[in-house]
Amino acid sequence: MKISKIAKVAAIAIAFGLVATTPAHAGVSISGSGASFPAALIEGCKAPFATQSTASDTYSYASSSSGTGQSNSDKSIGDFWMSDGAYTAATRRASLIHIPLVAAPIAVLYNFPTTKKPLQLSAATIAGIFGGTITRWNDPAIVADNNKTTTVTIYKKDRSGNPLKDASGKLVVLRTQTINGNFTLPDQKITVVYRSDSSGTTENFTNYLNKSAASVWTKAKNKVFKDAFPGNINSTDNLGRVVGASSSTGVSQLAGKTPYSITYAEVNYAAANKLKIANVINPAGNVVAPDSVGTSAFLASATQDANGWLTYDYATKEPGAYPLGIISYMLADTDYKDKTKAAAVKSIATFILSSACSKDVGAKLGFSVIDGSLLKKAQAQVAKIG
C-alpha cells in the first residue's frame, strides 16, 4: 500500500515531535494582599489549595495591613484583598463585596521573663494599660484581676476540637470550674507596644476597649492607634514607654525583645517571640483564653447586614465567649474583567472557608472555623464573585 506524501510528512513530524498538541491548562496565578491577621492561615492553605485545584490555580499573598489591602483594592492592585474591618470609604468600588473569611482571636501578649502562670485581665484593666493610666505591673487593678475567684466554662467539643452545638445552634456546656486566683506581680514598669500602621487589628482592638470600658477608653475605634488613644500619647510620661511598631510581626518582635512589655496580635505570634498569652475576664465574669472555642462562642452573638459586615456584641453573657474574637474579610469583586480570575478567586475563598483549610490547617495556628448561619452567609457572598 502506498503512503501518501501528506501521510509521510505527518509521520515524520510525529517522529520528531513537530505536531502541535493542545497544551495542558496551566491554571491561573492569583495575588492577594492586605491584613496580616489572617496571613498565617492563608499561607498555610496555599499548598493544599494548589493540590486540590482542578484548574491548577495558585495564589500568593502579601501580608501588610488592612489599610494597605483597602488601598490596593481601590487601585485594583492584585486580585483579592483582606481587611479586618468593614471598608466603608467613599473610594470603595460599588462592585466590591465583603466576605467573612477568617475567624480568630486577637490575643493580649506580654513579656514576663520568669512566671509561667497566665495573667487574667478585665476589659477595664486592659484599657487602662493600653491607655496609659496603669503603668506598673503591680498596679492594684491588675492585682485585683489576678487574685480573685473566677469561673471557667468548658464546652463539649467534637473530635477536631470544635465546640458542639445543639439543634438550636447553642453551644453545649460540658462543665464549669472555679479558679482561685493567687498571683504575685512584679513591681516593674509596663512598656506598651502598639501597631503604628493603619490596621484592622487595631480597629477591632480599640473598638473592644471603647465598647467594653468606655469610661476608661473614651475615644471611638480607629485603624490608627494614635488616633484612638484616649490621652496624649506624646506626653512626657508616655515617651519611651508607649512605643509603636509596624505589623503584627513588628509589634511581636519588639515585645519579645522588651522585658515587661505588652502588645496585641494574633495568637500564633506568641511562641516565636517567647511571649505569654493573657486570659480575658468577659462580661459574664468568666476567664476565657483566646482559642477557637471562645472565639466561636463570641462570634455566635454577632449580627450581619446585607453587606456581609458583622456587628459584635461585646456585652454578650455567653459564659465562654472570648470578647476579642474577630472576622477578617476578603474584599472581592462582582465584576472582574478577567472571568477566569474571578473563578479562581471564588475557588480560593471557597477553599479557605472549607474544613480542609479552616479546620485541618487553622486549628494548629489558633484560627476558628466559620460555621452555622455565618458560614451560609459567607458562602452566599462568595457566590456573588464574578
For the largest beta-sheet, the strand count, sense and barrel status come to: 9 strands, mixed
Going by helix content, strand content and strand pairing, the class is alpha/beta
Helix tally equals 15
Low-pLDDT ranges: 1-25
Strand segment tally: 16
Radius of gyration: 25 Å
Distance between the termini: 57 Å
CATH superfamily label of the largest domain: Periplasmic binding protein-like II
Q: How does the overall form come out from the CA principal axes?
A: globular
CATH class of the largest domain: Alpha Beta
Question: Any idea of the CATH topology of the largest domain?
Answer: D-Maltodextrin-Binding Protein, domain 2
The CATH architecture of the largest domain would be 3-Layer(aba) Sandwich
